[in-house]
Amino acid sequence: MQRSHDSGEGQAPPDAYTGALLRHIGSLEEEVARLRTALRGKEELETSVARLREANQNLVVAAISAQGLRDDAEAANRRQNEFLAMLAHELRNPLVPISMSSMLLERNANANPQLLNFTRVIRRQVDHMACLLDDLLDAARISSGKITLNLEPLSLSATIEQALETVLPRIGERNQTLDLDLPEQELATRGDRVRLTQVLSNLIGNASKYTGDGGRIALAAALEGEEIVITVSDNGTGIAPEVLPHIFDLFTQGPRSLARSEGGLGIGLNVVRNLVTMHGGTITADSPGVKQGSRFTLRLPACALPDTAPPQPVLQAAGANSCRVLIIEDNPDACETLKAFLDLEGHEVSMAHDGQAGLDALLEGAFDVVVCDIGLPGMDGLEVMTRLRASGAAQPVAIGLSGYGQAEDRARAALAGFDHYLVKPVDPDALLALVRARV
Question: Where 4-aspartylphosphate occurs, residue numbers (predicted)?
Answer without folding.
Answer: 373
